[in-house]
Amino acid sequence: MAYKIKVWCFLLVLLKLESILQNCANAAPQVPCFYIFGDSLADIGNNKHLVTTAKANYRPYGIDFPNGTTGRSTNGRTTVDIIDELLGFDQFIPPFATARSRDILVGVNYASWAAGIRDESGRQMGDRIILNEQLQNHAATFNRLIQLLGTKRAAAKYLNKCLYYVSLGTNDYINNYFAHAFVPLQSQENCLAWTYTIRQHSLRIFYSIPQQSLLFGNINNAVLPFNAGLFSLVHRLNKELNNARFIYLNISGMSSSDPSVPGKSSTMW
């Protein structure tokens, strides 16, 4: 018998998250577990031992951590680290590479620097844990939860209470589409939306992070077709999937003065 997992997916920007959860930081955790999929914006050490240039094992990375570099591509905490704290967890969610035993009960971070929605994105950087492999790692986590909790039903019931987060998409542009290296330019935005669609039943969570780039100043304009498709997809998923709740928050729309930007300055449930 198959057990459906209901996922409440909060797609939030940090500034909004702080205002929503500011009263929760010192309370008991608001959810029992937090599972994270993504790229360098969320990776906290999964790439440390991979053969890749996409790793943060040298200074100035980690200069704000007492023990130095941690694998995070930042000087200190990542967005998901801050979310951990605001949700009330007393420790950072561990990376899949080092999560052991009952650690997985509080959640797992599967994110990998250079990963994208598409399998080939970021491969010029070397090894990385692509989205499909992150999903496989979560399946392995689910099997370990079954062992810890006794049955599939118990493991599925436990995951029903958890928060899922994903930040992916940037590398499909800056380390694929704009690199002109692996995917032909025609209809790339449609390919990305299609890839999200075929993975919706596996991942059930979506997060788009349009990002300004010093190398590609027009990246925000380039992702508008993808965001429009994602906006429609989230609306359709909420109608079709009764056991999930998706929230769309358009970051690029909030910073745009163009009234035609889909979902501008709004959240769509």
UniProtKB/TrEMBL annotation:
Transmembrane segments: none annotated. The keyword RNA-binding does not apply. It comes from Populus tomentosa. Residues 1-27 form the signal peptide. Coiled coil: none annotated. Keywords: Signal. Pfam families: Lipase_GDSL. It comes from the Eukaryota. GO terms for molecular function: hydrolase activity, acting on ester bonds. This is GDSL esterase/lipase. The lineage of its organism: Eukaryota, Viridiplantae, Streptophyta, Embryophyta, Tracheophyta. Belongs to the 'GDSL' lipolytic enzyme family.
